[in-house]
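From the shared-data thread, chain only:
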Amino acid sequence: MNDTDAVPDGPLEFTCPRCRLEVVEELYGPCGSCRSTLRTLITAEAREVDAAAYEPKMNVTPNAVALKD
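Structure, as tokens:
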């Protein structure tokens, strides 16, 4: 049995996992109307995030090999 034998050709008929309607789509997942609804609800603008510089905790000791003279 080849791996390609398990992959169906063409569109799939299934129940949309979000709205429970019967749909025909290329891939399993939310239907087209659910995808467009999710895009409008979840879309966010990119923003700049300031991250603090890394400072090791006081209980962290340097690597003993690196300190070897």
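The chain has a mean pLDDT of 83.
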